[in-house]
Amino acid sequence: MEHGSLTDLKNATFSLMDEDHTLANSVRFMLNKDPRVEFCGYSIPHPSENKVNIRVQTTGDAAKDVLKDSLQDLILMCQHVRFTFDHSVSDFKLSPSYQEMNTDT
């Protein structure tokens, strides 16, 4: 859900339901890397509520578009981490060290 002005598209607050610090901090990190972002931050209104508010203020682009781009970048980063991890596990399983650990003696 987006809370913001219909006339000022560069500033908005987005409410994400059923989320917590894990996603919010990751999104904040990605937004802070974007040069179009003047300010971003998040808050959790109440500890017992699974809701996160993310505030985005941009230099001119629509806040909604900048948030979407940051979420896409976060997806790509997660895919890269997953691929790198899986590749490293495969390499380790083929290594002599791993083979020695799994031989029956």
UniProtKB/TrEMBL annotation:
It is found in: Nucleus. SUPFAM superfamilies: RBP11-like subunits of RNA polymerase (SSF55257). The keyword Protease does not apply. It holds the Pfam family RNA_pol_L_2. It comes from the Eukaryota. Residues 12-82 form the DNA-directed RNA polymerase RBP11-like dimerisation domain. The keyword Nucleus applies. Signal peptide: none annotated. Keywords: DNA-directed RNA polymerase, Nucleus, Transcription. Its main location: nucleus. InterPro entries: RBP11-like (IPR036603), RBP11-like_dimer (IPR009025), RNA_pol_Rpb11_13-16kDa_CS (IPR008193), RNAP_AC19 (IPR033898), Rpo11-like (IPR022905). Belongs to the archaeal Rpo11/eukaryotic RPB11/RPC19 RNA polymerase subunit family. PANTHER family: DNA-DIRECTED RNA POLYMERASE I,II,III (PTHR13946), DNA-DIRECTED RNA POLYMERASES I AND III SUBUNIT RPAC2 (PTHR13946:SF28). This is DNA-directed RNA polymerase RBP11-like dimerisation domain-containing protein. It comes from Platanthera guangdongensis.
